[in-house]
Amino acid sequence: MTDSTATQDRSVQATVYTILKNSIMSFQLKPGTVMSTQEIATKLQVSRTPVREAFIRLQRDGLVDIFPQKETIVSRIDLQRVWQERFIREALECTVLDSVAANRTAENLAPLHANIEMQQKVFAAGDYYEYMRLDNEFHHLLFTIGGQELAWETVMDVSSHYARVRFIAVWTAQIMEKNISQHQRLVSAIEEGSAESAHTLMKKHLHQLETEIKDIAVKYPDFFVSAENSNPARRDMLLSL
């Protein structure tokens, strides 16, 4: 295999992985969906090899479950994993706020204001797909301003279940509007140089999912691992964490 062929193969693998991951994260492929290697290969006009390799990467991300010689399905959301991912995200996002507050300048914070303006526009249009992109961009900007890009990559690598619950949550307009308001207050606290207030607001922002997820799990039970659990006590315990 030549270097150019190997590079092309890696490019195809990465493209297939990205397409499938985006489809799962945006619920175009819903939890529990059976994924056919051949059908995906045909649709994307690639061989089955990059599809199989994409499945392996997605399994590492916690986004698919592979049953050898049987089937591959989009993983259902594990509530216990949601809280663990939220724990990691909270630790990193609250910590980076100290650096953001230290680096606050009108120039550095301008992208945050521009992002919030765009959030308001897509909220008015009811475009929750674009809203989630902007929401992620907002949080990414905090890590960029704080000079912690590697930490942001870590957040993205370990947020597959938490991020999917967030995506379902913004299907409700009131939640989307509440998120935007919290983003505005967070930026105001940063501008005032109040890292302590920013920490409090960020924790509240990340913890609001605790009240939302109970309704989500009841409304979309087939999306969650606990919906298949025969032990009601365990389901109630996970919802209350």
Describe this structure in words.
The chain has 241 residues and is mostly helical. The chain folds into 2 domains: 2-74, Orthogonal Bundle (Arc Repressor Mutant, subunit A); 79-229, Up-down Bundle (Four Helix Bundle (Hemerythrin (Met), subunit A)). It has helices spanning 3-25, 37-44, 48-60, 79-102, 106-125, 128-145, 149-157, 160-169, 173-191, 195-207, 209-219, 232-240, and strands at 34-35, 64-67, 71-74. The model is unreliable at 227-241 (pLDDT under 50).
Brief synopsis:
With 241 residues, the protein is mainly alpha-helical. It has twelve helices and three strands; from the N terminus they run H-E-H-H-E-E-H-H-H-H-H-H-H-H-H. The chain folds into two domains: 2-74, Winged helix-like DNA-binding domain superfamily/Winged helix DNA-binding domain (Arc Repressor Mutant, subunit A); 79-229, GntR ligand-binding domain-like (Four Helix Bundle (Hemerythrin (Met), subunit A)), CATH 1.20.120.
